[in-house]
Amino acid sequence: MSKNEWACDQEYVGMIKQKFQYYVFMLVFLMLGCYQDPKFDNTVMREFQQCKTNNGCVLDMDKAFDFNWDTVYYFSGKYSLDEINEILGFELRSYTDVGARFIFVCKGRDVYSYEWFPSPENLNEGVYLLTDLDFFKMDRHNAKFSIEKIDHKILLSILLLGMQGPNC
Fold it and tell me: Which keywords describe this protein according to UniProt (predicted)?
């Protein structure tokens, strides 16, 4: 093999590697775009399974989520990153432009977030919040939601204890 042929082969191999990396990146990006966090879903499902034999199912986020947090925020899809950062008083460490989101905060820093697309076409399996509110904030001890299972979906509704929002 001549130097010219070898150089062409190496250039071709480099081009193939580049295309492969691009396709892998796009696949990962698409998978993340359709992804719901199993930690949140699994925790809520576990709480639902434990309470469904009792009278009324309540998700007490204080007891359900064992990571350190003091406040949970809910933002509908109407809020931009700039608006969310302004309300939080700090910049989010990671942000995906999705529909709705819970942001768990500890001492002025985001520690966990859960995001979903709340449109009827996207209601497959998973956990969704039923609310007409665009925003609310709850401290850890008041973050309680009723839980209901319909088909393969877990639906959360706010229990109005210590909630702070524009109409509260």
Answer: Membrane, Transmembrane, Transmembrane helix
Of the candidates 136, 158, 144, 159, the one whose C-alpha atom is nearest the C-alpha of residue 87 is 136
Handedness of CA 30, 34, 40, 45 (dihedral sign): negative
Q: How far apart are CA 154 and CA 68, in angstroms?
A: 24
CA–CA dist 66, 87 (Å, integer): 25
- Structure tokens, 14: 């480099």
pTM confidence score: 0.68
Counted residue by residue, the chain has a size of 168
Half-sphere exposure of 101 (CA within 13 A, CB side): 21
Helix (H) or strand (E) holding 156: strand 153-158
**For residues 65 and 140, what is the distance between their CA atoms, to the nearest angstrom?**
10
pLDDT tens readout for residues 91-142: 988 777 778 899 999 999 999 988 877 555 555 557 778 888 999 999 999 9
Where are the chain's structural domains? Answer: 1-35, 37-164
Task: Tell me what percent of the chain is helix, strand and coil, each rounded to the nearest 5.
Answer: 40, 25, 35
CB 159 within 8 A of CB 144: yes
